[in-house]
Every structure is written in C-alpha cells, then in structure tokens.
Amino acid sequence: GMAPIKQHVDIFEVLDGVKAIVCHSRRSAHIYLVDRSELDEALERLISDDRFELVLTRDNMVDYGLDNPRSGDLFVAVKEGYILSLEEKLRGSCGGVSDKELMVFLMANKPEYADIIEGADILTVVRAIKRYLLEARAIELVRHELKRADPVHDWGHTIRVLRMATKIALRCKADVEVVRLAAIFHDAKRYLGAEGHEEAGARLAEELLATEGAPRELVERVKKVILSHHAQRDELATIEEQVLWEADKLEVLGLVGLARAILEEKDIERGLERLLKRLGKYGSKISLPWAKEMAEKRVAVALRAARVLKDELESKA
C-alpha cells in the first residue's frame, strides 16, 4: 500500500568526493569503488549516517556466503520510510518495502545460484528467487521428516551433502537445480530403513515438486538422481547422478566418516574396521573436480586418525 517517505537520501551527496559507481534502486544500492583505497572513507560515511539500515562490505558478503562480482564493493540499504533518490518528496509504496523484500539481493547473489546469475541480465534474479523459494519449501518438509532420523542420516548429513554437491555441480557445469533438489530429498525417508528409502524419497520429492507446479521434466530428473544415489559407480547415467553419488560418498570419508562408522557400529573397534573398508571401497572412485581433491584429503586425514586411534585402543599411545 501507499506509505509516507520521510526523506530522500542522496547517496551521491553522502559519498561526495569518493570516486564510485552507484547502482541504486528505491531503498538499496550496489557501490563499486573506482579506487579501493577509498573504501574506509566510504564505509565511515555510510555507517555514521543513521538513515542506513544495512551496510555490507565485500568481506561481510563473504562471511554470509554472498561473494559475487555483481555485489560490488559495498551494499547498502536505507531504513524503512526513506528512499534513495534525487527527486522531491512524494508518497509511494516504495516507502513501505519490508525487510523481507530487502532480502532479494541477498538471495539472488548466493553462490549456489551462480549458474543462473553469471550474466548481467536482471531477469535472472527472478529465476534465482523462484529456485530459492522452491528449495525453502523442500527444506522445510525434509527437516520435519528428519526429526525422526538417526544421527548418521539426520539433517546435518543432508545439509553437508547439499553443500558439497553444489560445489561439485558448479565446477562440473551440471544442472545445479536438479542436483540440489535431489540432495535435499536423497535421505528424507532413510529413517524408515535402508531398503527402499530411495524410492520413498523420490516419491516425497515428486509430491512436493508437483504441488509447487515444477515442470514435469525437472521432477523426473530429480527423481532419477535420488533413485541412483546408492547405485554402483558404473551404473550412473548422468553427470547429475554422479555429482550426488560422489557428494554422498565424501560423507563416509574423513573424520566425519570415522564418527559415522562408530555410530553405525555402536562400537569403536568395529567402527574403525568399517571406516577402513569404506576408504578402500570409495576413496579411489571419486573423480569429479573438487570432489577428488576433497576425497584425497579426507582419506589421508582418516588414515592418520585411524592409526592413532588403533594405537590408543591397543594402549600403544
């Protein structure tokens, strides 16, 4: 609805003398500094101006997982009721933009959406937001399901696989949307037992995606990836299937793999044996970019930990 605008904030006046390119909308702006040595000066002016609600540097953006070249050197947003403009005062709905609407920038520039926001076309932001909202609904559903899961297959496992699968998919030019949705649902029904959990997870994904109006092709591809995440390595037919398979297997390597094995066996010595078998079975089968490097590191760390643990169990250390 219509809302009063208290004051127009002239950001060019605030940054007077600072060489910068400012791309602004009604309440927010991306600031690209011509000379980065002026960053501290620009930052001091913006932070000291109490009309600004949010001031983020590139370092802050990295901390939030928002490192994207399009984000600029600084991102700012004025408080509700203010507007970034040189125009005279007026009344308009822009003065009532909610805090949630300001999150559009933060969502659209998340690195997991880098596959659709590489260019400068502003319309790609719409695709990023749609994907974000669909994933948010999927995550809400799966987190509820996994309240009944054991510690090995809980939400913590799912979110780690999701993050690793995203990194691999981006490097392999795989379909990131398919991979991420499949990762979210891959163990959603694992708490019911190992047998048939792939099919149950695929059905749950299909129900949610169909309800949300996802294209049929997307639904089928997501289901196929979920169904194959426990297949044999040589049975994987697409890059998306391979991405999720390798991300899931990375979880059984390294120190996380050691902890999982002990939890599964409910015994330290048997857990150690289980870990060593998995290192031999999966360590050399992970081959995609970034995943292979991570696998090698995790195997090395796990082997060192296994030696120390074995010595301690035998009272040698």
CATH class of the largest domain: Mainly Alpha
Which topology of the largest domain does CATH recognise?
Answer: Hypothetical protein af1432
Q: If you average the pLDDT, what whole number results?
A: 87
| Estimated share of beta-strand residues | 5-15%
Write out the strand line-up for the largest beta sheet, numbering strands in chain order.
3-4-6-5
Number of helices: 13
Report the order of strands and helices: EEHEEHEHEEEHHHHHHHHHH
* Distance between the ends: 71 Å
- Structural class call reads alpha+beta
CATH architecture term of the largest domain: Orthogonal Bundle
Strand count, sense and closure of the main sheet? 4 strands, antiparallel
Can you walk me through this structure?
It is a single chain. This protein has helices at 11-14, 39-48, 58-63, 99-108, 124-145, 155-172, 176-185, 197-211, 216-227, 239-250, 254-265, 268-282, 291-313, and strands at residues 3-4, 7-9, 20-24, 28-33, 52-57, 74-78, 82-84, 91-92. With 317 residues, the protein is α+β, with helices and mostly antiparallel strands. The chain has two domains: 3-109, 2-Layer Sandwich (Gyrase A, domain 2), CATH 3.30.1360.180; 124-313, Orthogonal Bundle (Hypothetical protein af1432). A four-stranded antiparallel β-sheet has the order 3-4-6-5. It has a two-stranded antiparallel ribbon with strand order 1-8. A two-stranded parallel sheet has the order 2-7. A hairpin with a 3-residue loop joins strand 3 (20-24) and strand 4. The longest helix is centred in the C-terminal third of the chain and has 23 residues, at 291-313. The model is unreliable at 87-97 (pLDDT under 50).
